[in-house]
Amino acid sequence: MTIATNYQISPSLLRSEIRNGKFKKPTSGFAPGHIQTNVAILPKKYAFDFLLFCQRNPKPCPIIEVLEPGKYEAQLTAPNSDIRSDVPLYRVYEHGILTQETNNITNIWTSDLVTFLLGCSFSFESALKNNGINLAHIKNNTNVSMYITNIPTSPAGMFSGPMVVSMRPIPNNKVIRSVQVTSRFPEVHGAPIHIGNPELIGIDDIYAPHFGDAPELNPGDVPVFWACGVTPQAIAMNSKPSIMITHSPGHMFVTDKMDEDYSIL
Amino acid sequence: MTIATNYQISPSLLRSEIRNGKFKKPTSGFAPGHIQTNVAILPKKYAFDFLLFCQRNPKPCPIIEVLEPGKYEAQLTAPNSDIRSDVPLYRVYEHGILTQETNNITNIWTSDLVTFLLGCSFSFESALKNNGINLAHIKNNTNVSMYITNIPTSPAGMFSGPMVVSMRPIPNNKVIRSVQVTSRFPEVHGAPIHIGNPELIGIDDIYAPHFGDAPELNPGDVPVFWACGVTPQAIAMNSKPSIMITHSPGHMFVTDKMDEDYSIL
Questions:
Q1: Which CATH code for domain B3-120+238-262?
Q2: Given pLDDT bands bounded at 50, 70 and 90, which one contains residue A1?
Q3: How far is A153 from chain B (nearest CA, A)?
């Protein structure tokens, strides 16, 4: 077994493998128990507006760490990391248009860039699993279903738009427990934002998600909706900053922090 | 009974009385159940650093609302308010020096100013009271005891310094309950940061607080320490911005939000 297929790899070794070009795939399941994050990198002129947007919308945009202008080491959550090289695959958007995917952004890095690390649902999915709530998309090795809703986010400066949610089918007798379990993790999306009726939040066809794969809903399953980390990217894309660099979906930044570091009780 | 001595006044009427110069005293106990906030107003050039400082130090600096540059209405938490006139007493600091106290800052307001509303301990004190935990400083009508600790805050840009804590003596058999009760309110300082031994957090003499009044500790009481909303002001003073406007201690901004709006469970 090579390092790159050993799920029990440490976060720092995984980041080193990524940095050296030996690991280029999605990070789901690797370094289990550690916080993985969404990444959004923006020029300083947008940073106050985007930070305020995240503060006003903590459920879809839970901040794990913000690196100050030009800083590329996540000192608080991943000492000795380098955000320019430690994500397996990046996306570069210019004026809202995807212009390239790359394994390394060192050559386009500038001292003006501010990095936002935002919580990811991998953390609360582990908590659900630990409580005996198994998720169909993980069993089926598909991507979770995500939808653009009619729930507006709270605007900030140039940033505004609708909330994106992820949906997980939960057996009827586990729904209450799923609320309790995820409420403990407000910094990785927290409690659901809706249970049961997709139409009430502007979703016409549960089998036609806007992102990810179609869900498997079994008899007795209830659709449960959580605020989704795709929201900040969708919002930023909608607002068309001159440049924004993100991770490519599934290719997350892996921190040294443990999921339990972010539980509030 | 005049309006100004009726504790059951609504937040909007209380703000109106303050705006019209009819109410100029501390707000403790008025409009019970509603969120009162610390106020810090800074020029835009400091706003990203200060917002990031608050994000990195959520226990002492829990953000309730941030008003965008030049905005003086707290649209999210107190519609129709005016932050230039709705605080009973303001303090103006220039380069870290207190230069005036005033009931109205409309004449020094500029379109460049960003307002931060930060959570206040009045909310969790209500929660403690509701759980049968009575507080000596309220019974004695004195100010809570506050101390500068040896616990560093997490710096951000130009802002750094030690955490300020408040201390409440809690009967030994109520200490665990006080942790549970306040853990539910992470946006108004949340769980304690220390229980029991003042020396371990750099407090030499529990009877000589740096702010507020000396405590009354009875036999069987345990000193319990919470992160304090004086921290952001102390930090900003330490960092000497060209101008910062704050509320005067005890003279808070009263929002329409209820304490329970900010409980996480």
A1: 3.40.1640.10
A2: very low
A3: 12
